[in-house]
What we know:
This protein has strands at residues 3-4, 25-29, 34-35, 42-44, 57-61, 66-69, 74-77, 79-82, 86-96, 105-108, 114-127, 131-134, 141-147, 150-153, 159-161, 172-179, 183-186, 190-192, 198-205, 208-211, 215-219, 225-231, 234-236, 240-244, 247-253, 258-260, 272-275. By secondary structure, the protein is mostly beta strands. It has no helices and 27 strands.
Amino acid sequence: MRNTLLSLSVCVCSLAALNAATLTNTLSFNTTDGNWNVAGNWNENSTTASYIPGAEMAAIIGLNTSAVINDGATYAAGNLWVRGGTLTVSSGTLAVNRAADAFVQWGAGQANATSTLYIGSGGTVTNVGANVVFGQGNNSTNSLVVDGGTFSMLANNMLMIGMGTGGEALRNSTTMTVTNGGTFSSLGVVSVGRDAYSTGKIIVDNSYFKTTGAVNVGDNNITSMGELVLTNASFSSGNMTIGNLGGGTLFVSGATANVSVANTVVALGSTGTLSV
């Protein structure tokens, strides 16, 4: 038996420009297929010195590069950007430890490229004190995949799936998929299809998605589009807005779907669609 509880509220949030000036160093991954824990796979941008990023450093997985954490160990980065490459955390933990400086963000996106963060069944990514942004860049395609693993946001910060912050004039497309018993947990707002020319989609399939903050689907701009697809999902959140300026759609299916939000009122914004 499925129990579906939905509510609507409007969350008005603002973002300033990315500011990571207080990070000590920035390092870029330099190989098409290599391990995170190999110093020679990294170059400091200012000196080309090679060492593994630390908790107060920015790590960049750039165009056509691919980094892997598969040794079961724990690593840290002060800030993380996947810019047209792939980061796979299949066994181990990556803690993005950026302190709670105002408006500092990390995430993925590169114009005319595909950027992917993949978290496998033995992997965990934790975020402390920063907004997480997936979806920058004209014509960008961006993926956050939690495939049996865990993605945890440990502070009251926003997750944006489909968020253009670089003056995009062409649409980007961003998908977050939580599948195979994966878990997403957060204390903050989740925005799906957040800003201009952004398409955001979250798919939760036989997995767990929990936030104490609001969930806004199709948010903040008339050119944004958002979808939330829940299939046999265990989902809970604060208030939910479906279609807040942008186009928003919520799909719920599956005999074991359990969807709970803050209130019991089903309501839609002027651009929202509900399918249960």
